[in-house]
Amino acid sequence: MTNIENLYEKYANDVLRLSYFYLGDRHKAEDVCQDVFVRLMTKAPALAPGHEKAWLLKVALNRCRDLWRGAWVKRVALGSPAFELIPAMDQTEQRDDEEAVMQAIHSLPAAFREVILLHYYQGYGLNEIAGMLNVPEGTVSSRLSRGRKKLEVMLKGGGLE
Question: What pLDDT shows up at residue 138?
Answer without folding.
Answer: 93
